[in-house]
Amino acid sequence: MAEGTVAAGEAPLFDPFAEGFTADPYPQYARLRESAPVYEHPLGFWVLTRYADVSALLRSNSSVEERHVNPGPLSQLREEVYGDRLPRADGLSMLDRDPPDHTRLRRLVAKAFTPKAVRALRPRITELVDGMLDEMVAARRVDLVPALAFPLPFAVIAEMLGTPPTDHERVRDLSGMVVRSLEPVLDPDVLRAIDSAYQELSGIAADMIAWKRHNPADDLLTALINAEEDGDVLSDEELIAQVLLLYIAGHETTVNLISGGTLALLRHPDQFAALRADPGLVPNAVEEMLRYDSPVQESRRITLEPTTIGGVEIPKGTFVLAILASANRDERQWGEDADSLRLDREGARNHLSFGSGVHHCLGASLARLEASVVFERMVSRFGDLALDGDVTWNGRINLRGPAALPVVTRPA
Ligand code: HEM
């Protein structure tokens, strides 16, 4: 057996159900990096935890599409639960496609989701943040998750897509369910609930698309409908799939950056003080927050050919979890203080929180902009911000973040 692997049958070294894992998965990741960086889980999937290995997999000739047909632990279950009833748009988002389909879908969406369109959002994002911070100051004792971390990215993506305000609440609840499909392990009841939420959300998106075709506006959805290259456009099913992806990727991730980043500052008062003293640190601070506590903890791939990673050959057709959060704490990449938050860390932007390779996050600049505005405004608006009770975690393994972050505020 190759060095660094563990034979099937031994107690699993990767156990996301272990006590305390979602509150702090980092000790488990550290053990894996040290003793089994290319780990074959007894359930048949593999786990990568070192920076170089995670990065190599994401850049390798591997597949996301195969997740839907490959008997990985999740796909098998999906098959049992769904049979042939998989929603028609399911699997059509760019995140679920390999090149050349992926290249085509991504290019069409990128035409609508331009850096210029993102930059233009700064005034509106600032207005939204200021409104939320005003309410937080007035309330004094608040839970930062429902007060700021969640509603901000949701409002931004919902407005970008031109979602009717009357649909906001329903879309928010439905995407909160659909996003659970990104978790590595699900039981059949949850899968059924995801399926029905997916159908309903697809229906809402289809209605919006139909309406927008006749009522074009200056928004992302209209731009997506009109995106065209060499006569090629997105079909209705493809449009639905990209809209659902944007809703979910647009807020279920950034919420963890805002809440996890704030928590990191509250737990490192010296760093918080440094940020107050020099708000020019904000852009690098956001990168370091992304590195320190990755809002998306892992990516998944299926190998398309025997792939040697970290000196170990992973067979063709293997389901591999690449733990971004662990790569972001790898001492080999970051040095001895990999576990410390250092807002002025050089090279912080090399984190893998936005993934790597062809699926590198399309919304990275939007997420960076939202978080930058939050922390710029936070240090100028709050004289003080302190934890005011216990943090609870959302219990997710992949899109992991605080479920509640009680704080007490004092105006500047
Ligand atoms: C893809 C993370 C915010 C849209 C990804 C991937 C990661 C990621 C890790 C790659 C997944 C993989 O390779 O399997 C994050 C994080 C965010 C964030 C940590 C916030 C802190 C956003 C936002 C949007 C967005 C705000 C859009 C509004 C996308 C899209 C993809 C993607 C469309 C698919 C790209 C592709 O498959 O080519 N994101 N994301 N993300 N993200 Fe983000």
Automatic annotation (TrEMBL):
One of its GO terms (molecular function) is heme binding. Keywords: Heme, Iron, Metal-binding, Monooxygenase, Oxidoreductase. It holds the Pfam family p450. The keyword Magnesium does not apply. Gene3D superfamilies: Cytochrome P450. InterPro entries: Cyt_P450, Cyt_P450_B, Cyt_P450_CS, Cyt_P450_sf. It comes from the Bacteria. Belongs to the cytochrome P450 family. This is Cytochrome P450.
